[in-house]
Design a protein that fits this description.
Layout (H helix, E strand, L loop, with lengths): L7 E4 L6 E9 L3 H9 L9 E6 L5 E10 L10 E8 L1 H14 L6 E2 L4 H8 L5 H12 L3 H12 L1 H23 L6 H7 L2 H27 L1 E7 L5 H9 L17 E7 L2 E7 L9 H15 L3 E7 L8 H13 L6 E6 L14 E3 L8 H12 L13 H22 L5 H19 L7 H7 L6
Parallel strand pairs: 1-6, 7-9, 7-10, 10-11, 11-12
Antiparallel strand pairs: 1-2, 2-5, 3-4, 4-5, 8-9
Helix pairs in contact: 4-5, 6-8, 6-14, 8-13, 13-14
């Protein structure tokens, strides 16, 4: 992998009025820029009070300059940080002046996430830790911040490395045996291959559970409210959000477009999407809203199908047909739950029916139980607080690695066992696990990951 060395610069703090603003530079030559800017040699890792002047010698601002010579810096390269008042015009003047000073050495504006990308490429952190930097910045809850901090510290990576190294050792022994086919059975027994692979599977299962919890904390759960018009979808959204987000009337078709609101339940983000009522209509605007409802259903982690309890507690033929259509639109693993609304207006309730909940969006009756059930459906375990913060790609890699190891075990246990095929399954499992920490990466993955970062980090 080619490491970029051209110097880069970016504003490391948010645009807007603030007490402090920070400009960061990294790469070969930035310490020379500091001499031209500050008119002095900066002591490494010491904050120096300086006046920042423009090319004509006029004062831009007064602030601090800190030099971090390589390799003892965030990126592993020479780094210069300039701290001054958080004035957008002053920061822009200082940034433009630095670009002029560094023009001869190729100083340019940084891409999103490029500082952290260089830290990864220079071995300052692995890929899981680099992703945790962005996750910590984007954390929407205390739980998310704690989980991201643990991953940034390396807790997640250490867990992966433990069973990755164990798998590599077994794979190496397996491939060494290929030259001695008559000793295959002795190899399996002598090195206790079955038990060692089973232990790796157990370890993966534990980390996978923690990663799934972390993925829930990070990404939240997308809950789509669907149903026929006037069953109370907008009312339920308002009740869950605790404020009047959606317009509620008795007129069918009031909601004509998707409305989205994020709420926190026990620190877990729930992205609630209210949709247009699903029905046949000649209204062109409403038709667009209904089409967007189907698009939202395709992206759902959970679908709540609302029905009006005052119309009876038996699922109507129309709703049965709707549920069948919804199942065709969603992934096979996406649960579809029935929510009977308007409990305050009806005494009908069939507690024997599974996956059906009863609420009154108007009075709040049954709402707390519904929230609790939503967390259960999400797979959230309250005792998992403080776990690692993982991404969906981490969970997918763990699931794939788990399956490859199971395949290897099946091949090794078969009467006509194939050591070659088992070794290949172990290699595939190793590749999957290595994508988490960045030891092995598909060509396009790195660019996709860092493109989601903010500029200046």
């Amino acid at each position: 992998m080619i490491h970029e060395r051209e110097p880069i610069i970016a504003l490391a703090t948010a645009n807007g009025r603030a007490s402090v603003g920070i400009i960061r530079l990294s790469g070969t030559g930035v310490l020379q820029i500091s001499k031209a800017l500050c008119f002095r040699e900066l002591a490494p890792r010491h904050a120096t009070l300086v006046q920042f002047n423009d090319a004509s010698g006029e004062l831009i601002d007064e602030g601090l300059a800190i030099a971090f010579p390589a390799p003892n810096s965030y990126t592993g390269e020479d780094v210069l940080e300039l701290q001054c008042h958080g004035s957008t015009p002053a920061l822009n003047l200082l940034l433009d002046h630095c670009l002029q000073l560094g023009k001869s050495m190729g100083l340019r504006l940084a891409r999103p996430g490029e500082f952290t990308e260089r830290a990864f490429l220079n071995g300052k952190m692995d890929l899981a830790q680099a992703e945790a930097v962005a996750d910590l910045i984007d954390a929407s809850s205390t739980l998310a911040a704690k989980g991201a901090a643990k991953s940034l510290k390396g807790d997640f990576s250490k867990k992966i490395d433990v069973f990755l190294n164990a798998l590599i050792e077994i794979r190496a022994l397996t491939e060494a045996t290929l030259d001695f086919p008559e000793e295959e059975i002795d190899f399996i027994e002598q090195h206790d291959v079955f038990n060692r692979l089973e232990k790796i599977l157990t370890n993966i299962e534990e980390v996978k559970k923690a990663a799934q919890q972390g993925s829930i904390i990070r990404d939240g759960l997308t809950v789509v409210l669907v149903g026929q018009p006037n069953v109370g979808k907008s009312s339920l959204m308002n009740a869950l959000a605790g404020e009047d987000i959606a317009i509620v009337t008795d007129v069918a078709g009031t909601t004509r477009d998707r409305l989205k609101e994020t709420i926190l339940l026990d620190g877990v983000p729930l992205h609630i999407i209210d949709t247009a009522g699903l029905r046949e209509t000649q209204d062109s605007v409403e038709q667009i809203g209904i089409e967007r409802t189907w698009q939202a259903i395709e992206q759902a982690d959970l679908v709540l199908h609302l029905m009006d309890l005052t119309q009876g507690s038996q699922i109507s033929t129309e709703d049965q047909d709707l549920i069948k259509r919804i199942k065709l639109k969603t992934s096979k693993n996406v649960p579809i739950k029935i929510v009977w609304n308007k409990l305050d207006q009806s005494s009908k309730q069939n507690a024997d029916l599974e996956d059906q909940w009863f609420v009154s969006a108007k009075t709040g009756q049954g709402l707390e139980q519904l929230k609790s059930e939503l967390l259960k459906v999400a797979g959230w375990q309250p005792e998992s607080e403080g776990g690692i913060l993982a991404r969906k790609r981490h969970v997918e890699a763990l699931l794939n690695a788990e399956q490859h190891i199971k395949n290897a075990l099946v091949l090794l246990k078969a009467q006509t066992s194939s050591i070659e095929l088992a070794a290949e399954e172990m290699r595939l499992a190793q590749d999957e696990l290595s994508t988490i920490t960045g030891q092995f990466l598909p060509d396009d993955l790195l660019g996709k990951i860092f493109s989601t970062f903010c500029i200046g980090k």
